[in-house]
Amino acid sequence: MLEWIIGIYSLYIFMKIYLSVMQIGYINQEKNREPVLMPEHRYKIAGNYAIAKERLSIIESFIDYFLFLWWIYAGFAWLQSITGIDEGIRSSLLFLFGFFGINYIVTLPFDIYSKFKIDKSFGFNKMSIKDYIVDTFKSVALFIVIGGVIFAILSWIISSYTTWWLWGAITLFGVALLANVIYPTIIAPMFNKFTPLPDGHLRESIEKMMSEAGLKSDGIFVMDASKRDTRLNAYFGGIGKSKRVVLFDTLLQKLNDDELLAVLGHELGHYKHGDIWKNISMMGIFIFTAFYIFGHLPEDIFTQIGVVPTAGVTIALITLLLSPVGFIFTPIMSMLSRHNEYEADRYGSQMGGKDNLISALIKLVKENKAFPKSDPIYSKFYHTHPPVIERLKALGFDINRIDFDSEVPKDGIFQFLDNESK
Q1: What pLDDT, on a 0 to 100 scale, did the predictor assign at position 277?
Q2: Fewer CB near the terminus (10 Å): N or C of the chain?
């Protein structure tokens, strides 16, 4: 059975690398062709950024694979010899913190390189080394506290019930629900400052849209995203009384009020269509499917790995195998998400105006240096949002209406492109 698991994981890594190589080849060709939605220099920069991220992803995939093999052939046995083989929660926690700590240390350089080399060189990252260290300590502290509680509960369940996989799945699903409640109001403010949107025409217009959508929220907040990154975004998060609308301060700087309302209309479309609950339901299906599979693996796997099947080892092995199982779910969840995005665009265009949403989408592509094209297979597999060209087409916009060689764009609603074309 262990050979099958290693074979499946190997196939998973091969597919990840293959998709990345296909994406790199596609973008390398497209970035040298006639640009769309942005001037030629920005078009090539966006392509180069996408390629740089994919190349790093390939290296990470190789490291993940070697780390997986090390854990299977030696790492688990070595770590258990240090932390002990008793069924106690303390032993399980020591094993799991050792497991996750080693994985974190090995992968940390990639996160640092991504932020301070790739993102910084392309004008995204504004985070100082001090801010990064502080954020890292906060994240580690949260993981130790929250993760420790979750690991302790799961360890007790695995040690106490033969149907541990069912109760474990129910527990994790409950944790996912709780995370959606506490993240917007407790976790996120630990890393960013959230200030209520000032009174005025924009706030009144947003509150009117929220009322029409039937949304009662904890408030409308502006997040100091520019402290760390230059990218534009907005989101609607939370469930129950923790629901809130969040606007990045970078978004307020780059979009006019009409465009902001169109973007918020899109986000409200997700609420109106119950997309948060759809996503939670999909997460629940994934968790229960994965735990059912893991709960029925033969115990001789642990013998082949060279360990005693304690709760800590079981949770660590589940963590290793979640990636290939999740990979199988990825294209399904991506397909459903893209459908939801089209529906949200339709709602946003009705609430905030089609032209305003089109204008906002083009600004987002330009400012976020998001390459507007993608390898079709890669896109269908990974992209939770449809390519922006497809979204614009669905809104009835012809991308050929933008002419970067003329002094004025062909459509007057895109006056912001005038400076870019000169």
Answers
A1: 85
A2: C
Closest C-alpha among 268, 274, 275, 277 to residue 215: 268
Amino acid in the structure at residue 372: P
Query: Is 343 a member of any domain?
Result: yes
What was the pLDDT predicted at 401?
63
Q: Residue range 31-41: average pLDDT?
A: 87
Strand, coil or helix: 299: coil
Question: Which parts of 307-411 fold into alpha helices (H)?
Answer: 311-352, 354-367, 376-382, 388-394
Q: Is there a domain that residue 376 lies in?
A: yes
Q: Is residue 181 part of a domain?
A: yes
Q: How confident is the model at residue 2 (pLDDT cuts 50, 70, 90)?
A: confident
Residues sharing a CB contact under 8 Å with residue 244, sequence separation 6 or more, in sequence order: 184, 185, 217, 218, 219, 220, 221, 236, 237, 238
> Is 254 within a domain?
no
Q: CB neighbours of 335 closer than 8 A, spacing ≥ 6?
A: 380
DSSP code for 396: T
On the 0-12 / 13-18 / 19+ scale of CB atoms within 10 A, 24 is buried
What is the residue range of 104's domain?
Answer: 2-192+271-421
Q: What's the DSSP call for residue 213?
A: H
- Output DSSP code: residue 248: E
Compute the residue count for the chain.
Answer: 422
Q: How far is CA 261 from CA 162, 332, 376, in A?
A: 53, 30, 31
Distance between CA 408 and CA 176 in Å, rounded? Answer: 49
Instruction: For 45-85, write each residue's pLDDT tens digit.
Output: 999 999 999 999 999 999 999 999 999 999 999 999 998 87
Q: Is 341 a catalytic residue?
A: no
As a whole number of angstroms, the distance between CA 19 and CA 33 comes to 22
Task: Say if residue 349's pLDDT is above 50.
Answer: yes
Q: Which residues contact 125 (CB under 8 A, 6 or more apart)?
A: 115, 116, 119, 228, 229
Q: Is pLDDT larger for residue 84 or for residue 130?
A: 130
Task: Please give the residue that has the higher pLDDT: either 182 or 417.
Answer: 182
Structure tokens given for 181:
């409640």
Residue 295 near residue 287, CB atoms below 8 Å? no
Burial of residue 352 (number of CB atoms within 10 Å: 0-12, 13-18, 19+): buried
Task: Calculate the average pLDDT of the chain.
Answer: 88
Q: What is the tally of structural domains in the chain?
A: 1
Residue from 30, 54, 259, 267 carrying the catalytic annotation:
267
Please name the helix (run of DSSP H) or strand (run of DSSP E) that holds residue 188, with its range, or none. none
- Cα(31)–Cα(165) distance, rounded to whole angstroms? 48
- Percentage of the chain surpassing pLDDT 90? 53
